[in-house]
Amino acid sequence: MLMLREFDDLRLSPQTGWTRNHWAALADHLLLSARRYASASHARISFPGPPGGYGPDVDALEGFARTFLAAGFRVAGEGGRDPLGLMEWYAQGLATGTDPRSPERWVRLDEHGQAKVEAASLALVLHLTRPWLWDRLDPIVQEQVVDYLAPAIGSDYPPINWIWFQIVVEQFLASVGGPFERKDIEEGLAFTDGFAREDGWYADGAERAYDHYAGWALQFYPLMWSEMAAGDPAADSRRPLYLERLERYLHDAVHLVGADGSPLVQGRSLTYRFAAATQFWTGARAGIATPGPGLLRRAASGIARHFTERGAPDEDGVLTLGWHGAWPPIAQSYSGPGSPYWAAKGFFGLSLPADHPVWTAVEEPLPIESGDYQRVVRAPGWLVSGTRGDGVVRVINHGTDHSHPGTHLTDSPLYARLGYSTATSPVLAGEHAADPFDQAVVLLDEDGRPSHRTGFETLLLDRLPSGTAIGASRWQAHWVTPEGDARGDHGYGRPGTVRLGPWLELLSAVRGPWELRLVRVRATGAEPGRLRVGGWPLPAAHPVQGDLPAVSNGTMHARVMAGPGLDLCGVLSAQDSSPLAPWTLVPWCATTAPARPDTWYDVAVFLGGQEPDRSPVLSWDGPALARVTWPDGTDDLLDTSVAPSGP
After folding, report:
1. HSE of 78 in the Cβ direction (CA atoms, 13 Å)?
2. How far is CA 36 from CA 31, 47, 312, in A?
3. DSSP character for 160?
4. 507-552 per-position pLDDT tens digit
5. What average pLDDT does the segment 344-353 reach?
6. Number of C-alpha atoms within 13 angstroms, CB side, residue 437?
7. From CA 125, how far away is CA 131, in angstroms rounded?
8. CB-hemisphere CA count at 13 Å for 627?
9. Residue 528 DSSP one-character state
10. What DSSP assignment string belongs to 202-235?
11. Whole-number Å distance between alpha carbons of 458 and 565
């Protein structure tokens, strides 16, 4: 969107140039563009594209409710000033959508579960804009809205972030004198307490489910609910804890944004794009002291600029299913043409007035712009490495698989890969999405099928005195013949008929653009099969051929430096397998014969903006002590006994 550049202010925002004017103009552009796809009554907004998995009625409701979020934030932050007539426009849609007699009525909460999600957005905006919308609605329309939301009471909600949708809806009903059940709110709050993990993080349910929902949902709704319920002892007593968790979480979150503004390409619902900025605006609205408002705005604006400069929205002002531009394979079973507009949550900063510190403070640089770092994020089990020279954030994953220890599911490319970054995407489409190749350590069976790691055990997450981050995990290699339709998986691993194999143990040491990966196959008496190690999936314009495990796209470089025994190497070229480029190139190495049991194999895995002139050097100070000399001259001693040889 070239038109946004006219608002650039490098004095106030030296990193991005973005100000509140950019955000307002982008929101207005999306909202006015959406009107072209609205029904006569404005109740249904049906964006172009094939119907989603839940059908056109749900698609049209999403189109209304999700754009309504952006409209509400826009008007709330202006104190009711509404030159585009947003409240009047959406009021007409509310009146029709909640009218049970209208042919354009919305699908109800007791007719389809997705309506429970959208109802929370309706309730949230009605709360934020109450003086300019709710209080001006005809009493009959108010009754219709209450009747539409009321099926939330006593209803079953999935035991994940959806619990907050029920809490928010019933809290709004309580605030306008409608029916609600105090027990639902209290039990929901108690249940969501169980999502809390170390260092302010939340898991999305009972599983090791860590993704962008940790910020745009699980940090966002607790603070919004405590605002809605202000004065209630339950809300006032909980709010300090929610604030404490958010503040601690944000210290990790700002380290997960690349210098170019890209969030991690990890986890489901990636098509929500700008929504990844929600957590930073939530911190600003809550008055978090650190990170400061200049850094919070830098992170949020960087994310928005990243997408607007790379094709989102498109030339028609539409947010398509995709990451940058349109890429339909990014959809999950719940994704339809209106789904991407949950990106509207990323406009939450517009609910804050122009004189708020988050808009007036000078931008501060992201951690990635200030220097290199290695960071251990314990809840999701991530070793985070950021390098200032190329602006890339990398995550080595020893704790997230959207499952539990001991399960034997397929590996989801969105959760169970060994690495994610702000410059690469896992292979999400094609044959190698189902059979792990990129950022994977696998055993190959007699048919060449790779094993899976979901259900692994986390053994170690630590940071050495030198600053090097280390982690370890182990799992029983397993092969799965999946059951059911992958579209129903929501990006998770899939169950099926399982065949178990040997145990694999992995120790990672991470420093700068390098990961030293130590892999051992446990002796079980069974033939272990060949070992294969896949590196970073580099986006590229063209395929490559050859047997050198090193690739470049002109900007970034990826390579795999194999140690003794890994004597086979090459590059996989996968077409249309990720949203970042036409091709994905994956360097890899493997054994030509079955892996030797109880033997450590070593691989140095690289992703960086410059070709490396040196690689880490490994030596052994005994059977269990590995010494690593890094390219910067640092020496680290790794104790491999953290990966025991028994199950």
Report:
1. 19
2. 10, 9, 18
3. S
4. 999 999 999 999 999 988 777 899 999 999 999 999 998 778 899 9
5. 98
6. 26
7. 11
8. 8
9. -
10. B-SSSSS--STHHHHTTTHHHHHHHHHTTT-HHH
11. 26
Helix (H, G, I), strand (E, B) or coil at 519: strand
368, 386 Cβ separation under 8 angstroms:
yes
pLDDT (0 to 100) of residue 524:
80
Distance CA 572, CA 588 (A): 8
- The rounded distance, in Å, linking the Cα atoms of 90 and 73 is 13
Give the CA radius of gyration of the chain: 25
Helix (H) or strand (E) holding 72: helix 56-77
* pTM for this model (two decimals): 0.97
Reference 471, options 386, 410, 413, 400; nearest CA is 400
Buried b (16+ CB within 10 A) or exposed e, 274-302: bbbbbbbbbbbbbebeebbbbbbbbbbbb
Q: Is 637 exposed, middle or buried (0-12, 13-18, 19+ CB in 10 A)?
A: exposed
d(CA 228, CA 170): 11
| Residue that has been written with the tokens 């190749």 in this structure | 437
| First CA to last CA distance, the chain | 54
- Please choose, from the candidates 132, 31, 119, the residue with its C-alpha nearest in 3D space to the C-alpha of residue 88: 132
DSSP state of 553: -
The Cα 393–Cα 255 span in angstroms is 8
Q: Quick one: which of 179, 268, 164 has its CA closest to 226?
A: 164
pLDDT band at 642 (very low <50, low <70, confident <90, very high): confident
Can you say whether residue 371 is alpha, beta or left, with left for phi > 0 and alpha for psi between -120 and 50 degrees?
left
Residue 410 sits at the vertex; the CA angle it makes with 409 and 411, to the nearest 5 degrees, is 115
CA distances from 558 to 87, 341, 392, 584, 629 (A): 50, 34, 13, 11, 20
The whole-number average pLDDT for the span 14-36 is: 98
Measured between alpha carbons, how far is 346 from 306 in angstroms, rounded to an integer? Answer: 13
Q: In what order do the strands lie in the sheet with 392-397?
A: 373-377, 382-387, 392-397, 419-421
Report whether 345 contacts 30 (CB < 8 A).
no
Tokens of 195: 């999502």
Cβ neighbours around 483 below 10 Å, total = 9
Decide: helix, strand or coil at residue 439.
coil
Place of tokens 């003794």: 564
Note whether 402 and 208 are within 8 A (CB): yes
d(CA 215, CA 158): 19
